[in-house]
Amino acid sequence: MHSLCPAVWSKHRRWLLMSMLCLNPVACSFVDLQFPNGQVTYVSGEGLTTSAFLPFCGGLLQAQGKYPGEMRFSFSHKNKWGTRITPMFQWPDKSFTLGFAQALAWQRSGLMVRPTVQFSLCPTFGGSNPGLRAELIHSVNEQLNLICGCAFMAHPSIFASLSGLGYFFAGLTAYGGANFGLQSKSYP
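Given the sequence above, the corresponding structure tokens read:
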């Protein structure tokens, strides 16, 4: 036997602790603690990642971090017109992003109503990569999404991706250079 993977649920299934213990040599390569408002994960060689969220003032307060690495604090709130406003602060980059996302069209899907066209605009101030990012997302149906947008930052770019149930295609073009890429991934 090479490793053990114990998992422990709390009495009322409010939290879950999983880990992977290698037996030869004895080492802990993975630990994951999940609880109702977040999760803490340690992966050997990669470090510690955390995420936590808390409903607050009609929105969602979130904190995400990686040690060693960065911390991200955000508050997401949807106003009465359906616009999602998300201010976000990133540390140690010391940047501030103010995200706006608005659904432009809706479609009924069974008992749910889902957005079919969304527009988002995210200006970033300070830090190592200030600028503006805009995206238009079109959900053709439940299996096919088209995303296109542009970023006016230190390295301006235009991007587009097409994703479906079985395949994912993405392209990237940069201003001022001859960069072009096409990526194809197959999902089972």
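Residues 79-187 form one domain. Try to locate this feature in the token string yourself.
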